[in-house]
Design goal:
This protein is of the alpha/beta class and 135 residues long. The chain has one domain: Rossmann fold, CATH 3.40.50. It has five helices and five strands, in the order βαβαβαβαβα. A five-stranded parallel beta sheet has the order 2-1-3-4-5, with helices on both faces. Helix 1 links the parallel strand 1 and strand 2. Helix 2 packs parallel to helix 3. The protein starts with 5 loop residues before the first strand and ends with a helix.
């Protein structure tokens, strides 16, 4: 993989979208954005990002519905998905992880550096797994 990875940020709140797009871009990632679940799912299918940051409370398709579609599709099921939401209810966390989320980060409780570290860890795991499959 040349350069940094492509990250899809699916977030309906413009302020959060702008902040995290800037953080990710400044760290060298290519960033795609979607303001609702339907656009997020379409971009996932067409662009096949390396990682997805997915809010739960989205219009059109909520985050859990998008996650289910990602995991059900053979072309997208291996993309790491970090649920990135203000929701911190144990039931929502458990449901997201049960549906196949790779990680869960609560907005406002993660520093930008902590989020970047989570992203890099997941991308490294994915690269390692892909390398092991190729070898």
């Amino acid at each position: 993989m040349s350069g940094k990875a492509t990250i899809l940020l699916v977030e309906d709140q413009r302020g959060f979208r702008r902040i995290y797009q800037d953080v990710l871009t400044n760290d060298g990632y290519e960033v795609l954005t979607a303001e609702d679940g339907e656009i997020g799912w379409d971009l996932t299918k067409t662009k096949k990002p390396d990682l997805i940051l997915l809010d739960l409370g989205l219009p059109k398709l909520n985050g859990l519905e998008v996650l289910q579609k990602i995991r059900a599709d053979a072309g997208t099921r291996d993309i790491p998905v970090v649920i990135f939401s203000v929701a911190s209810e144990d039931t929502e966390v458990k449901q997201a992880l049960t549906l196949g989320a790779s990680d869960y980060a609560v907005k406002g409780f993660q520093t930008h550096l902590q989020l970047l570290e989570r992203i890099e860890r997941l991308l490294t795991q994915r690269r390692t797994a892909a390398g092991m499959l190729v070898a």
